[in-house]
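Reviewers asked in the last cycle whether our approach scales beyond single polypeptides. To address this, we selected a multi-component target totalling 886 residues and predicted its structure end to end. The input consisted of the following lines:
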Amino acid sequence: MDDTRRRAVFSVGGLDCAACATAIERTVGGLPGVGTVVTDPVSRRVAVDYEVAHVSEQELRRAIEATGYRVEPNGPERPEQLIDREEESRSREYRRLMRKFWVSAVISVPVVLLSYPWLVPGLKGLPWLQRSSPTLLWLWRGLALVTLPILFWAAGDFYKSLWGAAKARSANMYTLIGVGIAAAWLYSTAAVIAPGMFPRRELAEAYYDVTAVVTALVLLGLALEIKAKGKTSEALKKLAELQARTARVVRNGSEIDVPVEEVRVGDVVLVRPGEKVPVDGRLVDGASAVDESMVTGESIPVEKVAGDEVMGATLNVTGSFKFSATRVGKDTALANIIRMVQDAQGSKPPIQRIVDRVSGYFAPAVLILGVASFVTWYNLGPSPGLAYATVAFVTVLIIACPCALGLATPTSLTVGIGKAAQHGVLIRSGDALQTARRLNAVVLDKTGTITVGKPSITDLVPAALPDVDLLRIAAGVERGSEHPLAEAIVRGARDRGLQPPEPNQFQAIPGQGVEATLEGRAVLLGNAKLMHERHIDVAQLEPTAEGLADAGKTPMYVAVDGRAAGLVACADTVKEDSRRAIARLKEIGLEVIMITGDNRRTAEAIARQVGIDRVLAEVLPQGKAHEVRRLQLEGRTVAMVGDGINDAPALAQADVGVAIGTGTDVAIEASDVTLISGSLRGLVTAIEVSRATVRNVYENLAGAFVYNAAGLPVAAGLLYPFFGVLLSPLIAAAAMAFSSLTVVTNANRLRRFRPSEV
Amino acid sequence: MIDNVLVTLAGLGAIAGIVWFFWGPRDRGYRVPLASSGYQETMVLVKGGYSPSTLVVRAGKPVRLNFRREESSPCSEMVVFADLGKSANLPEGQIVPVEFLPKEAGTFEFTCQMGMLRGRLIVESGNH
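The resulting structure, written as structure tokens, was:
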């Protein structure tokens, strides 16, 4: 949607009938700048398209309220509410199916007993229940009536779906089941009403048990499948449940508890120790450690001070603080994560698209196979041909399970992607998942990915002063500077509890350093060039400085009153778990390559620290995508991990682009996988989840394929000429009902996935 | 013997019928009208199948399909436009809009999550 047009969705209380809907449509639709108005009495929602220039959301709200209805705050837009509703409709559907199942099951008992009384102990001796006895014929006529509720009520859904599909000229599982059980009922009824029509008496047998039992089993299978499918989205539900219910907002000077839906951007929210942060915001007062593990997967609480961002759904551990809300409702980081996960769960990896193409032909092909079996049995089968032909026809239709093929991928994907999200890894699509499994090379951006991305003090080399004084003076001089290294030094001094003095006559010397007067002393801080120009003897320190530079650090000389006082070295530090994560990546068979714009010396120093052998240094920002392409031409499947805007083209070029979640939105947008915590451990998790999920998908597909490929010929009677075996439709129904259940159950095994400890 | 011939002929006829019904030539599809909102917009009913099941739209203009699922069968609880990377959950009885901008001409399928229900989206080039 462009900037001038918007869509607003209102949740309207009391909107139950078509008449109220029309009233709202007319009133709101009459406002200037309003396009379409869609009312939905079922969800009690009104969606309005409007032009921002002519009308505001506020005016729309007032117009709806003017018709006598109440607009409820925020609307049922938040994902956790949607999930709740789905949950509710799932459990309703489960109860409905189970009710139908029980009725069908109870009816099935006498139907089965009376269909084959000569096989049932206790009944088989009775003379009036012998084959072709008139009493049995009358009993069977009774069964025709008893099974009617099954055919029309319990199996009613099958026919509704069959009809809907037929109108679209397509077929589905219900087409097969529906035709199968109807054929069995019609054949039986013809046989018991007009046995004379059949040339031989033994043809006139009834198969009401097929109608009853198949319906019951299919209903049971569907019900259990719903139950199992509900579990597949458990991970997402857990994410959604993280949301806090209430927030303590400071309004007009007093603190009040409000439902989280009513928090507005700009509200100041108070959070005490042990409470959840209700929405996203920026800390304005106080300090605390916040446990963000539920969102980022990072187990160590993060220290927050004024100015830091806090995320909704995270847990405040130690102190109290106030923050100003920046994102609420469906805009929070958590809501975005949930939405991204839902989208990914609905996406299809390439393998499933092939399966889909096949399954489009599947149901009609099974109908054809059924007809062909019928004709073959009728012509070539033993007597009574018509009875055998009908049984084969019905069995073929019933055993075929297109659903198992269709279910294979989506269920595994739902579990796998949900599981990844629980560990702070957002996999954006099924494509990414399938590709991540094949990865054999990973390119890591240095700054911000392997390293923290912010320099800090690594070494203090005192010459004429104790190191505490050296640091205090260096920090004092740098207080005036805005250089990132200066910030590192000032921060380093404060972290060590030092109070840097106020500098006087501060002056920056571009490309060399800074000078200032500090507590009456003339202080210089900068590189060797600065020292040489001011004729300061640093010969003693020079070898150390060289060594530090070799290790990838930036050494700075400090001189006080014309004499060398020491060295302060800064460097971007490696994230604490990078080394272990990289070792693990190598273990699982990936070549790890570092890419950076930095000079080769610094790059190689970092590479040595984390155990990377191949370094692409001094790469210009626009050259990163090119380097990724080069690796692909070498035949590798490449993942690129980066965080900056300049990484975006390389992320897009890579087979799998991985963004560090703490990085820029541009990088996240261009990526296939986002590591929310920013730790490389997430990459290991992403690859492990992908491997486990894709393996699970293959298991499911193979299972579903083998099941159908083996079941269909047996049902058609292929084994009969050799072994005299013909499958009973009842066994076919049981196999069919439980094949899709097996697929869902196998997918649920993924719920036990744990990322390896790194 | 005559019955064998009849059954065989009827069987062949039925197979021919099935082939024609499911894979035979189809209607040209439903042309999605351009609404005052600037969207090519229509309702799509989800009940056993998608109706209309073949939608014709023009490239370059935004499309909004308002899906409404009127059945409780869990098969259809999600609609997936695999080629466009779009999907939506369809709670029963609710209108769920799916919006996208078709850029290239071509025929794209939309299906339920399991590929049992199928619809086609035909995108015509927007020049004419």
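Chain A touches chain B through 69 residues (CB under 8 Å). We regard this as preliminary and will revisit it once experimental data from Aim 1 are available.
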